[in-house]
Amino acid sequence: xxxxxxxxxxxxxxxxxxxxxxxxxxxxxxxxxxxxxxxxxxxxxxxxxxxxxxxxxxxxxxxxxxxxxxxxxxxxxxxxxxxxxxxxxxxxxxxxxxxxxxxxxxxxxxxxxxxxxxxxxxxxxxxxxxxxxxxxxxxxxxxxxxxxxxxxxxxxxxxxxxxxxxx
Length: 167
What we know:
mainly alpha
């Protein structure tokens, strides 16, 4: 190989590693998105099999998550600090979890939302714990997205250090 080809290959390798570093800023967001997607998928299947009319709730959440995941995939080819659809998706998840946390204390709502569980205090507490975990994860993702938006995350600092080294 000629020196010119080696130089081009090295520059491409550096660009690709920077691209991957920018994409990896959203790694936690992608994992939590997948967790929410599959949680809502199982909830949707359970509601659908129970013939519950409220199966549209997890379905809408899954649609929002698919839009968010699509945006995250696009970030690999075209980096952005402002993942708008992902932010709105997690705001929607946060508000839904808060609403569900309040609504589980009403007997008729609980049986329609969770027909696969017994209408007991133990079941309500279990669901409340799951919803609180969802609230915490949604808040964590929104915090992370805000830090990424303002370049205040640790990954950004590492990327800038790497850029200084390679340039």
